[in-house]
Amino acid sequence: MQATLLSVLGLALLGALHAQDSIPIQADFQQDKLTGRWYSIGLASNSNWFKEKRHLMKMCTTTISTTSDGNLEVTSTYPKGDQCVTRNSLYTKMEQPGRFSYTSPRWGSKHDIRVVETNYDEYALVATQISKSTGPSTMVLLYSRTKELSPERLERFTQFSREQGLTDDEILILPQTGEAGGTGR
């Protein structure tokens, strides 16, 4: 009985690891080209905080810079109520170019971040697997160099989010600051 249970748990763990490894990473990733200002155009997640805050979310600005030791400093500024809030995060580079780790000092969650695809001057698609005590979650971000992005790029974001197991209710094209409401995808 114990051996069967261990076998099942082992297979479940293997399945989870395989699912995580199935997320692609940008071929020939060039970190220096990812730096600069981006707008968060789309956000998809199956986390509880996303479900609770989805109706309040708006587009934000994110600036990415490289630290002296080759990691990424990610600074996001987003509207919260009638003010702007800035959050700084340090993404630690991993062995594979285009893959980073981050541990939230506030929540203790561990983030496996992958730059899935980008052309550096128009858009970037980023997937994050999050591990925390309440269970795992997935987040997909669509960044753009401008506040608007082609319908093809928006559709690619939606398609990729669905491939990660996210439902249409968990996928959001963020409204620009000052706009009322939001459009789900």
UniProtKB/TrEMBL annotation:
Similarity-based family: Belongs to the calycin superfamily. Lipocalin family.
Cleavable signal peptide: 1-19
SUPFAM superfamilies per UniProt: Lipocalins
Domain of life: Eukaryota
Gene encoding the protein: Lipo
Keywords noted in UniProt: Cytoplasm, Disulfide bond, Endoplasmic reticulum, Fatty acid biosynthesis, Fatty acid metabolism, Glycoprotein, Golgi apparatus, Isomerase, Lipid biosynthesis, Lipid metabolism, Mast cell degranulation, Membrane, Nucleus, Prostaglandin biosynthesis, Prostaglandin metabolism, Secreted, Signal, Transport
Subunit structure, as described in the record: Monomer.
PROSITE patterns associated with the record: LIPOCALIN
Primary location recorded for the protein, binned into one broad class: cytoplasm
EC class: isomerase
Domain Lipocalin/cytosolic fatty-acid binding: 35-177
GO molecular function terms attached to this record: prostaglandin-D synthase activity; small molecule binding
Annotated GO biological process: mast cell degranulation; prostaglandin biosynthetic process
Protein known as: Prostaglandin-H2 D-isomerase
